[in-house]
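Q: For a teaching handout, I want to show students what a protein-ligand complex looks like in token form. Below are the inputs, and the small molecule is adenosine-5'-diphosphate. Please produce the holo structure.
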Amino acid sequence: MPDTINNTTPPAFLPGLENLQRTLPSWAVWLLHIALIAAAYWISGKLGLLLAIPPGYATAVWPPSGIALAGLLFFGYRAWPGVWLGSFLVNVGISFDANTTETILKSLSIASCIGVGATLQAAAGVWLIRRYVGFPNALDQERDIIRFLFLGGPLSCFVNATIGVGTLWAHGIIPTPALAFSWWTWWTGDALGILTLTPLILIFFATPRAVWQQRRYTVAVPLVAIFALAVLVFVLVSGNEQRRIESIFEQRTQALTRALDESLGNYVQILQSIESFYASSSKVERHQFHTYVQRMFDKYPGIQALSWNPRVPTAERAAYEAAARRDGHASFQFTERDAGGRLVRAAPRAEYVPVYFSEPYVGNEVALGFDLASNAVRLAALSRARDTGQPTATAGVRLVQKTGQQTGILICLPLYAQNLTADTVTARRHSLRGYAIGAFHMATMVDAVLKNQDQSDWVLRIEDTAATADGAHLYGPPLEAGAGTSARVVRTTLDIAGRQWALSFTPTPDYLAAQRSWAPWLVLAAGLLFNALLGTFLLVLTGRTSRIEQLVKTRTAELARSNAELEQFAYVASHDLKEPLRMVGSFTELLARRYQGKLDKDADEYIGFMLDGVRRMQQLINDLLAYSRITRGGQALTLTAADAALAAALANLKQAIGESAATVSADPLPPVYANASQLMQLFQNLIGNAIKFRAEAAPVVHISAQRRSEQWLFSVQDNGIGIEPQYRERIFAIFQRLHTREAYPGTGIGLALCKRIVEQHGGKIWLESEPGRGSTFFFNLPVKPKENL
Ligand code: ADP
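A: Here is the structure, written as tokens, with adenosine-5'-diphosphate included.
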């Protein structure tokens, strides 16, 4: 796909990267982009796998899909190898099987194909977004946000859900019946990954930064918080599920362990019953032994052979052999195995423990006559049994009777001379007659116990803990390399006839798959879906807000401009009006001077009206000019003596004060940061009003100032007519008067001017008043100069 580095938008990326991109040659930038995407993909993939539900890799969210999309959006299509490499590495990590060349090739092939799927998916998402939404994009329009998330997320995720699951199916990893479900979980994971992660990446890196940056707190924080919460709940729920599954499994294995223990106990009891049989008769004949043990075989299928092994001192060997031949075993002799494993006549030794009676005969022919004392493993068990008086098992042995891997154990029960309390080792050694010995076939014995259980759920292994490597394995498939380390294996021990067996139950993958609960997956998927919806909603909201803010900014700017223009106009107009007005004024005065009394009475009156009108208009224009001048200048405020400003104002009011016989007093006033002439105007207007709006009595006016933390609070108090409460806001607006011109002259600009002056200085103006008794106007000025005035 043709693409150049220039039409991509990496500028707002990490500041360091930005510099690098400027200084590096373009091929190096390209490699850098690839490496960045691959690394981010790999890391987020590893993190994503932590949220998978074992067994298998059904993840409810696959964040790398969001990385891939954002990566190609920022760096352009040509950075695609980064996506492929990231995906390849993650998937090789999941399924690498180094057993054979074939399995290696298979792992590599799976990882490559999924990588291709991931790459195509991201490219499709970028193409759709560029084509139908446009990128870079502020995403501040509902339509854009929804299109962006839908095209980049759910829609483009069809690609790898199909390619990825198809790959696993083609390689025989996913069986056909599981296709639909696997597709669905794959698709959900990818889509949620994009919906969750892409907005976050955009917030931190996309342009225009002004819009995206604002979303850090309004969108990113809630999204990350909800995401963390969803993951936390998932971890808790899935931990609970794991424990539940494990505890169910453990309970089952406990039941099995008890059944095994009981069954093996029964096998030991067989030997004890033989012991009782011997104890009750002085001499047991071969045919009696045969009859007695027959009933055992049906009940206990694990019995390979039950035998009577007398203790034969070397002197009695010939007699025993002769007696057995008389019983019908023509070739009977004591035997042992030679170094090559062949049965040969037993070499002379002090004492023999031959298999003398053995049932059933068929299948055990070769064992008859075999001297157990000739074999170290067996002899060890025999000696221990003899010394302890207890049934004693051997480690695992290859049974003599069978060929091939027939693991069995022998359990030996010693029999002592009658009527003898054999309670010391010496006494036992002395009075030993022989042993009742059972040869038990492990597989048949254990299988008989397990036969009612569903054995496809677990694999049982039994090992003898104290035995050497040879005799350790008693039951179950041999341990595979690396297996058995899983935490799910339940281990217990059983004490069997003086030996300790280690039992390990490993649940099969099928069992775990059947037990797998989708509750945690659902919790996470629902949480993330909510998160995605919330993200969309927040993007829409912030998009709208930023659009409105933009609008407000433009409008305010327009408003400020038109305000300034208006002021300019008022200033110019008033200024230019003064000249013709002065002309009208002077000619009217001329007219009055020359023709007063020479025209008729009406003409004199009209001239009087004209003069009055001209004077009022001049006053109005002067006031308006003063008002519109307040914003002009903008020079820095300097420390000004309020006393001096007050004195200047009083000088201007000298005539009014004299005419009204007003008393004006003032406290000492502080220096303030103010424009001196404006401060003077302020005093002049307030004191002028205080005198103008007088009551019957002569006006008394008092001016004072007090420090209130960072402000100076000034007050101008009078004893005039006062102001009704409902007018206390209104009178500060321009042209607002409460009286006719006939009652009190004025233009209604004075207080508006005062308010403007005070506000220009960063202060406020207000009043308190009691109608009929007087008013006090307050205004405050800051103690320190305000910036930007
Ligand atoms: P003007 O003095 O030209 O009427 P101002 O803006 O100065 O206009 O005042 C607005 C109105 O506020 C006045 O018309 C008057 O009704 C009222 N006012 C102002 N100062 C006082 C005062 N000290 N006592 C009573 N009323 C006042």
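A: Two things your students might notice: The first strand starts at residue 52 and ends at 53. The first helix runs from residue 15 to 23.
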